[in-house]
Amino acid sequence: MKEKMIDFLLSNANPSIRYRVRSEVLNEEVPLEEKQQLQEQILAEPVIQLIIACQKENGWLGNGFHGPNKNAGPFENQEVGTKYLGEKLVFKDTPVLNRAMDAFAAMKPADLCYEAKGKIYSEFNVPAYGPNITRSACIARAHYDDVINIEPQIGIALESFRRVTEVDSIFDVSRPAKNFRLFNENERWPCHYHLEILAFTDSWKSEDNITMLGESFKRLMRTDRPEIMNTRVACWLGHPVGPAMYYPEGFSISADTDDVHIVRLDKVEWMVRCGLYNHIPKLKEEVEYVLNNIGQDGICRLAVNEKEFRGWSPYFGLQLETDWKSKIRRACDITFRALLIMHYSKQSI
């Protein structure tokens, strides 16, 4: 079945997907001339042209950092722009991405471009928060962690997940406030960006760390304590600020809506990239569900949350096809993610 999925994608998919199937899944050395042809097609796409056009002289993308605002569109900001380019482009050192990474290397966390009004909110002091955690996730997603050092942030990500295994619940790292709880200062707790950093880096991977991460997720995915599940916790930075999508007890990688089972493909992909398939029964279950929705023609017909799949933002976005106006382009995007999940979980059907 894997071969049929590959054949379908190589015959029908966007050049970004075709290249990644060959290089990432088949581990093929694509000839330089072919890579250049694919890159030319990618660079001509409207969203890529939009990102190139919004780049500043210093390499920064658009007029925002953490997603869109009134002066920056969905892709015209540094975070979404770099993540999208990291997923789309064939050549890692393409000028638009390379210059954006140079901006990350040059701009310090106190710079106004990080939208923190010159204040430094350190990821070492505030759990699940800080512009440098966001910046590091962008660097990891673009595979520039061998150029820009984010080892301290990889360490924080591991410490944050490990903290879950050291306490009974999130109550142990937070304190009551008026209508919610506040994280204690200098504590650790995992969030969306910590998983993103680990999913797209390799230096941290050891048997002990992967086992720890699996145990952390099993605790986060508990559903037997309703009094703790989905506890609302904020950061205290002079006023309550929501953390960067922290993971509460009750964390889920799927949802059932109107009798339709929706798998959160991004989280499942990231977790199997981390080597967690054999460590978390629920993850195994969802991977099997994904694979069971692949037809004899190699096309995955899984139901997806289109707002999360198509709507690129700091927290969501998987679409690599230029649009979903045709059913085959939609099928290519979904089948590609299913193929990555199959590949990184080392499963086959």
SSE layout:
Layout: H1 2-12, H2 15-25, H3 32-43, H4 46-54, H5 78-88, H6 95-106, H7 131-141, H8 151-166, E1 174-176, E2 181-183, H9 192-199, H10 207-220, E3 233-236, E4 240-241, E5 254-257, E6 260-263, H11 265-273, H12 281-292, H13 306-310, H14 327-345
Parallel strand pairs: 2-3
Antiparallel strand pairs: 1-2, 3-4, 5-6
Helix pairs in contact: 1-2, 1-14, 5-6, 5-7, 7-9, 8-9, 8-10, 9-11, 11-14
Strand order of the largest sheet: 1-2-3-4
Tally of helical runs: 14
Q: What is the alpha-carbon Rg in Å? A: 20 Å
Sequence of secondary-structure elements: HHHHHHHHEEHHEEEEHHHH
Mean pLDDT, rounded to whole units?
94
Q: How many runs of DSSP E, i.e. beta strands?
A: 6
Percent range for β-strand residues: 5-15%
Shape: globular
Low-confidence stretches: none
What does this entry look like structurally?
- The protein is mainly α and 349 residues long.
- The chain contains 14 helices and six strands.
- It has helices at 2-12, 15-25, 32-43, 46-54, 78-88, 95-106, 131-141, 151-166, 192-199, 207-220, 265-273, 281-292, 306-310, 327-345, and strands spanning 174-176, 181-183, 233-236, 240-241, 254-257, 260-263.
- The strands form two sheets. Strands 1-2-3-4 form a four-stranded mixed beta sheet, with no helix packed on it.
- A hairpin with a 2-residue loop joins strand 5 and strand 6.
- Helix 1 (2-12) packs antiparallel against helix 2 and helix 5 runs parallel beside helix 7 (131-141).
- The radius of gyration is 20 Å and the shape is globular.
- The mean pLDDT is 94.
